[in-house]
Amino acid sequence: MLAETICSAVSAAGLGIAAVTAYRKRFMAAARITAYALVPVGLVMTGVVEWLTGIVFNPTVWIGFGLLGLAWLILATTRAVERRSLGGAGGPAKKAKAGPSSPEAVAPAASKPSLGTPPPAPAPADDFSDIEAILKKHGI
After folding, report:
1. By the 8 A CB rule, do 78 and 93 touch?
2. Which of 7, 45, 103, 104 is buried most deeply by CB count within 10 Å?
3. Phi, psi of 80 (to 5 degrees)
4. Which residues of the chain have pLDDT under 50?
5. Using CB atoms within 10 A of its CB, is residue 4 exposed (0-12), middle (13-18) or buried (19+)?
6. CA 132, CA 125: separation in Å to the nearest integer?
7. What is the pTM assigned to this prediction?
8. 3-state helix, strand, coil in the chain (%, to 5)
9. What confidence tens digit (pLDDT) does each residue in 56-92 have?
10. DSSP assignment of 115-136, as one string?
11. What is the DSSP letter of 139?
12. Neighbouring C-beta atoms of residue 50, cutoff 10 Å
C-alpha cells in the first residue's frame, strides 16, 4: 500500500512539473516528462510494484538467493579444483599420438626439412641505420 502511494505521488509531481514546462512553451520537454510521470502509475496498475515488493520484503526469497549463490560457489570451486588436478600429476596421463611426424613414417629418401626438424630462422636484418639517423637528428 505504501509503495502504491509513493508511486502515485511521484506521478502527480511529475505531471505538475510537466504542466509548468508546458506553460513555459516547451511542449516537447513537457510531453517527455508526462510520459515518464505516467510510468509509476502504470506499474502500480499492472501489479508489477506489488510483485516487486513481495520479492524484496520476503525473507524466504532472500534465503533462496543465498542458496543459489552457495550452489554457484560450490560449482565454481569444484570446477577450479578439477582443472587444477587434471593439469598436475593426479590427472590421467595423456599419451602422445604417433603421427606422420615420427621418424618411422618418413620415406627413406626424404629431404632434411621433411624429417621434422624446423629450418633455421633467418637472422634478423640489422638495418637500423635509418632509425639511428632519425634519433641523431633529434639529438637522442
Report:
1. no
2. 7
3. -65, -40
4. none
5. middle
6. 14
7. 0.46
8. 70, 0, 30
9. 888 898 899 999 999 999 999 999 999 988 875 555 5
10. GTPPPPPPPPP---HHHHHHHH
11. T
12. 14
